Amino acid sequence: MERIESFRIDHTRLLPGLYVSRRDGGEEKAVTTFDIRITQPNVEPVMDMPAIHTMEHLGATFLRNSARKDEVIYFGPMGCRTGFYLVMFGKLEAADVLPLAREAFAFMEAFEGEIPGATAVECGNFQEQNLNMAHYYARKYLAALENPCLIYPD
Fold first, then answer.
1. How many Cα atoms are found within 13 Å in the side-chain-facing hemisphere of 113?
2. pTM higher than 0.70 for the full model?
3. Per-residue pLDDT at 6
4. Would you say 46 and 82 are in contact if contact means Cβ atoms under 8 Å apart?
């Protein structure tokens, strides 16, 4: 089998940042997947699963209500628990979505109250949430975006 693109990235050199992970669909139906890397792989501890779940709810809610909602296809966690994927329509660069990422994570960092979609009717694991840790990771990521890494290291 062919080795997939994400396994060709040297994860020992990745820093927290916002990267183009892949592009699909060609010019006409272009789709761009972004790597929202919050923790440094294999260096920092992986993210807390309840916090990831909370961030998924908050991030998806924000993005699907943003001015760019029609471009958003998916926002969800990486299996390695070091960040999230954001999939959007269009042939985009990381700089194109940097303002949106900042807005989304500022929303997560400041959010207070009932977590959207965190009921038994709306979610298959609604009790596994951690808003305090979600605030921590959002704050951490916003700090990383002050001097963002936007290109995968060679």
1. 7
2. yes
3. 82
4. yes
